[in-house]
Every structure is written in structure tokens, then in C-alpha cells.
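Troubleshooting log. The previous structure file for this entry was overwritten by mistake, so regenerating from the original sequence record. Sequence copied from the archived sheet and checked twice against the printout by T.R.
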Amino acid sequence: MVVLGVDPGTAITGYAVLRRTGSELEAVTWGVVRTTPKQPAPARLQHIHQEIASLIARFDVTELATERLFFARNEATAFGVGRTIGVVLLAAAQRGVPWAEYTPLQVKQAVVGYGAADKRQVQYMVQRILGLDAVPTPDDAADALAVAICHANTMGRTR
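Regenerated output below.
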């Protein structure tokens, strides 16, 4: 199984590709797709779509996982992130890649074992689980790794 975890955002979209072989998880690549507010929204979304589609093709991704959108205060941010999720889902659908989403609570429980864990605890456990030399950066990429770990371990138990 090759999982693409995505932490969607309009300015910064985190991504992570994990390979699961048996019970072993390997971080293949991680990083961010950046866009600038100077670009019109359609151009920003097109760039994100192209980058995610490229990752799906290059790494022969078999599963896509995102964190469930949750914004209680900022409606404009929620709409932007929702659009980003839309273009990510389009990229997956074009390649027939199934999608799952997880709440922040589910991701934290899967990675740390505690649903109220803070960002640093999650990043530390991502480093430990994947055997990385350092805490992954930037934060958006670390979050994408956490989502991918959550999915790989959830699906690994059900398949």
C-alpha cells in the first residue's frame, strides 16, 4: 500500500507519501506545495492539483487520506481549504485512488494514543514511528505524515 497523506491549505498544502509493507512503514517523501496570494484562486488551485496529481502518478499511490476540515471561526479559510480538498480529490479520482478522511482526534489517537495531544507530541511520534533522524518539517508536511500514518495503520488492520 502506498498512501498519500494531505494536509490541505490554500497557501501551503502539506503532503507525505508512505509505503506500508506488512507492518513496516516507510516515509518515501514529504513536503509542501506553496502558492502565493498574488495569484488568482483558480491558478493556485490548478498548481495544487498538478502537484498532487504528479505525486500520485510518480509514486503509484494506492490510497489518499486527508484530515477532515474543521473550522469554527473563519468561514473564508474554510471555503479556501474546501476548494483545495476538492482539487486533491479530483487528482485522486482521475487515477482511481480511493479517499478516506480522519478527524484531528482520530489522527492524534492513531499517532500518539491520546486525542488531546499537542502538535509537538504528534511530530515527535511521527519521527519515532517512521525512524526519522529529526522531527519532520515544515509543520504542514509533518501533519500530512501523521494523516498518512493514521490511514496506513487503520487500513492495515482492516485489510
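The beta strands are 2-7, 12-21, 24-34, 63-67, 99-102. Archived copy saved in two places this time.
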